[in-house]
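Long-time lurker, first post. I've been practising inverse folding by hand and with some scripts of my own, and I keep getting stuck on stretches where the structure tokens seem ambiguous. Below is the full token string for one chain I'm working on. Before anyone asks, I'm not after the true native sequence, just a reasonable design that respects the backbone. If someone could post their per-position residues I'd love to compare against what I wrote down in my notebook.
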């Protein structure tokens, strides 16, 4: 089993990316996989432990060992999915890259990014408390951390959500080449495949098909349309030179 880490800020499109990659015959990207021991004592510890318990129950493995031995957890997931590569995706893992480098070595790293204005426009994030300012802060802090420590990972691939939705086959082919694999016909139609995260509850306690966090996945299409950011989003974005400079670094005008 070979782990590959996928990092991003929340609502950057990493779930769409991993859903598609999960359709490859050699890649398992079944659900978000937090590294439980990184979150002991953190404010979201209970959510992480609950997710790990759900995964352990699905796999039929010892939950205590899964929480303390990530290699055991990763191997168990890959064995269950019968795949060679495992994509370890969970946005908050992005804040622990030095620990990931120390624990797992020079693993391949995929960085998923989305235009800051689009993430700030996310209704789910804005309704989660803190509004647009909180969303802007999260986008900035997560991406700064990823860029700061990406130097620790020589094998690095940046994926922009807008490129993925505009030219999905081209972008997925590029990511697969980064992983040493070839594109397989049909994998873009991820809704025709079974995904293990459909058996688990998301952070809001609902299954993906019922959760506002995953509403885009139910459309059975890859939608390249971008909504016009609300006025409040543009006011905050225009007032922050830091946000604009980092967004421009990713190629957003």
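-- Answer (accepted) --
I ran through it position by position. Result:
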């Amino acid at each position: 089993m070979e782990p590959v880490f996928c990092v991003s800020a929340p609502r950057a499109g990493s779930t769409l990316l991993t859903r598609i990659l999960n359709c490859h015959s050699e890649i398992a990207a079944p659900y978000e996989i937090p590294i439980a021991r990184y979150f002991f004592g953190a404010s979201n510890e209970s959510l992480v432990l609950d997710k790990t318990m759900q995964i352990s129950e699905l796999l039929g493995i010892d939950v205590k060992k899964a929480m303390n031995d990530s290699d055991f957890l990763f191997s168990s997931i890959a064995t269950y999915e019968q795949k060679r590569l495992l994509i370890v995706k969970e946005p908050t893992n992005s804040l622990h890259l030095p620990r990931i480098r120390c624990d797992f070595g020079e693993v391949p790293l995929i960085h998923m990014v989305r235009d800051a204005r689009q993430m700030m426009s996310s209704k789910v994030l804005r309704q989660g408390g803190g509004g647009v300012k909180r969303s802007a802060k999260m986008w900035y802090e997560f991406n700064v951390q990823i860029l700061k420590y990406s130097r620790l990972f020589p094998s690095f691939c940046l994926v922009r959500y807008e490129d993925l939705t505009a030219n999905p086959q081209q972008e997925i082919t590029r990511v697969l080449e980064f992983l040493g694999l070839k594109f397989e016909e049909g994998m873009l139609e991820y809704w025709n495949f079974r995904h293990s995260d459909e058996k688990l509850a998301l952070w809001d306690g609902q299954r993906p098909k019922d959760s506002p966090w995953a509403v885009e996945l139910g459309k059975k299409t890859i939608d390249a349309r971008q909504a016009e950011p609300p006025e409040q989003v543009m006011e905050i974005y225009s007032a922050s030179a830091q946000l604009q400079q980092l967004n421009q670094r990713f190629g957003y005008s």
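A couple of notes from the structure itself: Residues 106 and 153 are 5 Å apart (CA to CA). The chain has a mean pLDDT of 90. Happy to go over any region you disagree with.
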